[in-house]
Amino acid sequence: MTCPNSLRRTTLRSRPIHYPEQAVNAVQTPASLAISVALRRARESRNVGLRAFARSLDISAQYLSALELGRRTPPIVTLAVLLTALKVDATTVDRLLQLARHSEDPDLVDSHAGHHEAIAWHFEHLSTDTITWAPALIPDLLRTPAHEIHLANHPLADPQDNGVRSFAAATRSRNFADRTRRYTFLIGDTALHACPTYIYADQLEHLRKLAVRPNVTIKIASSDACPPGLISPFTAYQQDKITLVVAVQHHHATTYLSARDTLGQYHRTVRWLRRNALDAVDALPISGFAQHDGGQGSTRGTHESQQNVGTAARDLSQASANFDKP
To answer: How much is the pTM?
Structure first.
């Protein structure tokens, strides 16, 4: 697909783009943010600089930057011209134009593998608190490299998704390392047991090291306190204790929710999980898991670790009974 000069002149030069006030929000909807991510990646994939691209379309670099950062949502006609100029394939253009028609909707189901990591980075950047509930799998920001490789090599893993995750990992890690941003990870004890035996000890040690960071809180919830499957994995992005959006993660898609009533329900869920989970420093094994003497000794250390986690889970179940339900 190409962008004829006449189309550029008619759409952008003869009729200058206006900046409607309703397109400027402190926090964009998930759909509008997905559009902004796609625009920036399309331009970068063509190796075109932001200022050069804006100049070729006779629009300001500030406006184009605002579109790519999700601070403004382009009208459908403008979006079509931008995508055509970037020679984006027809299938992607149709998908993004469909998103644009729903850019004001509070919810979004997005199955594009390339969006989630970038959208997650944006919401983490907007948030003061990022809260993740992970009932069956260690969250990606907490995994060791060996654990990440193990999951990437699984037959059900999507190679395209793995490539996107690797690309975005460094950027999201910078957010994670920022001490002014707070991260809370609520992990089901099932996720600990799901960790492969050969990396179990290193993964637990990694969790213990991260748990002492001043901006990181890690809590473990027992399967008795919250049975696996009862609450799907999700991440809540909060700004000064106000939930901006919730991302519910599925295997091949992510659902973004921002309707006020729905956010209120997830806020209560987060509060309950926090109250009924133990700090990782208390819940994770204190000894046994760090033994690497090989042979029977290594196996024995792993078994002792699993027994300690089981004991912590039972203690957690008893402790949860002492809390009042919200």
So the answer is: 0.67
